Amino acid sequence: MTHPILSVWSQLTDLFTAPLWPAWVAGGAIGLLAFAQRWITDQPLGCSAAFGNACARMGSQLPLFQGPAHGPATDWKLWFLVGIFLGGLIAALSSGHWAEPTNFGNLYQSLMPESTAGRVLWWLFGGVLIGLGARLAGGCTSGHTINGVAMGTPASIVASALFFAAAVGTAQLTHLLLKTGMIGG
Q: With a threshold of 0.70, does the pTM exceed it?
């Protein structure tokens, strides 16, 4: 008979060394993090706010990175960015599965420029659009969809619905363009 603690340890080891973590583990961890952050700091979880702090600390003079929202008193948000990177690294290393950070599959390869410089320009352009969208929406998908919807905030519910509608619309348009041969190889 195996000791109960060893049995639980074995199950956890199997869980965190799987090629993909189960959705309930990742989702549960995000939910616990969002709850803990709100409880401890009275601030919602969100990437765009943390990114704003990083930009402010790197010396950006843009008005959208100034003021109390991105002042030194909120620099604890930078740890969220560090955690995103470290969490991804730990997940990749513990699963034994590593994917090239620039290889996102055949569809991606067929839609992107072949040159590295071209891809970097597209990434920068996409990042600017995402940043502008997050600022216009008053927060990013993690802030609105994970926290705002959970708290029943009307603006977050509308923003999240628009995020999903844009994603579904983009996927459908891409599928149509691929099917008709207008894009892709």
A: no
